[in-house]
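Box S2. Input/output pair 1.
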Amino acid sequence: MAHPPMKFSTPLGWLALVALTACLHMPMTSAEEYYEVRTIQLGENGDAEAIDQYLKKALLPALERQGIGPVGVFSPKTSPQKKASSIFVIIPYSDLDQIEASQKALAKDEAYQTAGANYLNRDAKSPPYARISSELLTAMECWPKTVVPEGTLENDERVYELRLYESANERLGNLKVEMFNAGEVPIFIDSGIQPIFIGQALVGPQTPSLTYLTVYKNEAAREKAWDAFRAHPDWKVLSKNPRYGGTVSRIDKFVLAAKPYSQM
């Protein structure tokens, strides 16, 4: 029996209040959410169509049956002449135990096994991708829950940006997290930069780091928002605070388009 698609949306009116209130609260004893950011590197012989079919027909419906979502699936925005090199999958979890429980549930899910057979039953000589790399994040105080603003999925022109801020050591990484919690996110919102999730890496290939995903109405809105952020008077004050100097040693930035079946 087919299941109707889950809808995940949030009114825009309270987004700034969420960020401001969270920044004023005492630290939480445990995160409200955790995120897996899964990067599927296609390589020269990758089969993007097979991966899309697996994600669309097998994995996302199975996670939906487990109550996990919204799940985002994205590819880098590229020119028509260039193929995308990676697929990004973002999965939110309510707690750490849910990650292990989800894997066990997939192994027992017959509908998942059937729908994903073309992908799951491939042998070692015909892999659909070159490698999968994942990082596990914990939600931060300034943005404790996934937010997909109302109307986002109906906008075919929307553009996303995934950023990873890497730090030279754990002390500097924690200071960058503190900088976000101390007021960077309200400046985002005031500038037109709409977060979907923000998380600090617990495990990953580029720790210490934090990663966040933002969404914009279109490419012009994305460029305008970042121009506004850089010129924002509050950012000029915060960015010149010597406490936060040198907290980021590397920035990885990906401008993304959502897959048609993405829930973000």
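Box S3. Input/output pair 2.
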Amino acid sequence: MLDKWTNAWVAPVLARCATGLGRRGVTPTQLTVGGFAIGMLALPLLAYQAYGLALMAIVLNRVCDGLDGALARHLQCQSDAGGFLDIVLDFVFYAAVVLGFALADPVQNALPAAFLLFAFMGTGASFLAFAIAATRHGLERPHFEHKAFYYLDGLTEGTETIIAFVVFCLWPVYFPWWAVFFALACLITTAMRIAGGYRALAHAEEAPRERFENGADA
């Protein structure tokens, strides 16, 4: 929901940083894998309730996640392989953070963490399933008039997830409440993506059929 605004002011900063990294020979894959390794440190840090250090690992992971794409665009080396690696490692990282909170206090946090992971499955599945089908139909955000999707819009996108993780770390005692609240928002996002994605793909499938029928009538 907030990505369209945050990207507008973050993108120029990332582009400038990417230019400097490119001069130093850093590659997008190095940033992706390095950022993932840093982010995974949050799991044991959270388990040992070192919330400040875990927050630093989370923030650094998200910075690297933004920089790898910016660097790929700067070097003009964007690829499906790089995109695949980035997305998969992102989802593993998200799950690791939630697991870290469950390990920090299993009695209080385990059930809310499980509920949040359940909700993450919905947002992740709807994101990836639509992306696969949209590619087959050539649907791209700039050219799709019915819904302005890159991934399907919803209440919880990248910006909201970062904010949630920061809140979890700053006020860990309230994790059960924040986790349930964010999980409900994720479930609403999943419902929106299912409905919007179905309509988008149904329209894409009907368009060629309509053109064929109109051509046959002519």
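Caption for Box S3: The chain has one domain: 2-214. The helical segments are 3-23, 28-40, 42-47, 51-75, 80-104, 106-137, 158-170, 175-217.
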